[in-house]
Predict the structure.
Amino acid sequence: MKDNPQLKGYLTDDGKFDRMPGKKQKKKLALMLQCLAQQFEVGKQYSEIEVNEILNQHHSFKDPATLRRLMVVSGLISRTLDGKSYWLINENDRAVNIV
């Protein structure tokens, strides 16, 4: 997914996202979030710290909280109400909302 030409301008030489697409770039943002979601395993529970660590490995603009929130809002990952546990939503169960 990172080799998608639509995302090329958002990646550093080492393959990390260096900024988020602008407000009018909803399709590019959705692609970026889907790419990040691919870094998680279906059926595995993650703590907020683990989610942040994974996201930080794939972006350089130091905002895992926003990425995490957008992934939840987009229906890519879900979490418990207290935010202590996160998990990837199975692709077949996903109803992706473009943020």
Observations:
- The chain has a mean pLDDT of 91.
- The helical segments are 26-37, 48-56, 64-73.
- The beta strands are 45-46, 77-79, 86-88.
- The chain is about 30% helix and 10% strand.
